[in-house]
Amino acid sequence: MIEFRDVHASYGDATPILKGIDLTIEDGEFVAFVGTNGAGKSTTMRLMNGLMKPDQGTVLIDGVPTTQLKTSELARRVGFLFQNPDRQICSSAVRDELLFSFQAVGRLDDEARRRVERIIEELGFDGDADPFLLNRGTRQLLALASIVVLAPPVIVLDEPTTGLDFRECTEVMDIISRLHRAGTTVIMVCHDMEVVADFAERVVVMADGRVVGQGPTFEVLRDRRIMEEADLVPPQMVDISLTLATASPRFADAPVATANTLCEMQAAIEDIVVGDAAAPAMSKGNPEDAPFQGAVRKER
Ligand SMILES: Nc1ncnc2c1ncn2[C@@H]1O[C@H](COP(=O)(O)OP(=O)(O)O)[C@@H](O)[C@H]1O
Ligand SMILES: [Mg+2]
């Protein structure tokens, strides 16, 4: 468990950056941190791996303040992926980079070498390749692998999908959700609301060094007050359903007003159209002629 108790932090000058953060992250959760640039998300992440210490208040990992944990002890408990993976990579071969993770925590033994070979195979890396000659997506995968290989109980990921194309993003999120399903606590800063909606169980919204809202993902994403305060736009489907809910009393109580995903929205619209005598083609027609209807059926 990770706890923030009235945490204030700054970068050495008089400017306060975090202004009283209170948070609890339970074991096994998948929590996304969202907020505009400069909101204090990365600073909050740095406090979780002890790279930064609070000016005031306490950050506790499993009940122990980070100020009392040695760096190697913290690294064993919390794996950390930087916002820019290039800051994390320091070896001249993929295999060495993965081995270095174990070396850094003083565990470079035969078991470590086996795990490195296994992850090289699983992720399809060339163990001899120079990390700096890999493309951005593969370097990000390597940076992620160098944390994952240590199997920490908690991983903190600062914008793991930024700058990746769709396929690379899917690959990275696949690894992260597999880890989560296996019991790892995932704490992720993410600016892509669609990714947040797809993966996170809980969302923490930050603005100007404070937490301005937190709760189950869709409760937060559908809360206009929180989203406006943090100057954020919810995922497209949530935005559409909120707009429909306020646009017409016909929709206000219908499932379109509560749809969170494309699948739910399609099903909700289908129900309206099917129940609507004005649209006989959708209700009585051949499903082959109504791909939209067919798609809804398939997804369900
Ligand atoms: N190394 C640093 N030195 C001084 N100020 C910093 C440093 N890193 C971040 N800041 C400042 O702290 C504030 C919060 O930054 P950050 O935590 O990186 O926000 P976010 O990750 O939400 O974009 C910003 O105003 C930023 O300019
Ligand atoms: Mg940041």
Unreliable sequence segments: 287-300
Please tell me what the overall shape is. Answer: globular
What is the terminal separation in angstroms?
36 Å
Task: Let me know the largest β-sheet.
Answer: 6 strands, mixed
* Coarse structural class: alpha/beta
- For this structure, the quaternary state is single chain
Fold-level CATH name of the largest domain:
Rossmann fold
Tally of individual helices: 14
- Reading side by side through the largest sheet, how are the strands ordered? 6-7-8-3-9-10
What would you report as the Rg, rounded to the nearest angstrom? 22 Å
**Mean pLDDT metric:** 88
Named CATH architecture of the largest domain: 3-Layer(aba) Sandwich
What top-tier CATH class of the largest domain fits best? Alpha Beta
In short:
The protein has helices at residues 41-48, 71-77, 94-104, 110-122, 136-148, 166-181, 193-199, 217-221, 224-229, 236-247, 249-252, 262-274, 280-284, 291-299; strands at residues 2-10, 16-25, 30-34, 56-61, 64-65, 78-81, 154-158, 185-189, 202-207, 210-216. It is α/β, with parallel strands linked by helices and 300 residues long. A hairpin with a 2-residue loop joins strand 4 and strand 5.
